[in-house]
């Protein structure tokens, strides 16, 4: 029985190590995905702000030109 218990403990340790490694890998991947999403979203927001700013500036210029032409 002693040998069997030792073998089981060895298997348990292997299982624990494997589970820990898998969990760590999954957590790291999730974190990486979240960070990438945040970075991409921030870039999209920045681009959106720039586009809105450019559109607003162009609109102002058009309005000024129309006023000047009138």
Automatic annotation (TrEMBL):
Keywords: Membrane, Transmembrane, Transmembrane helix. It comes from the Eukaryota. The keyword Transmembrane applies. The chain crosses the membrane at residues 14-39, 45-69. This is ABC transmembrane type-1 domain-containing protein. It comes from Elysia marginata.
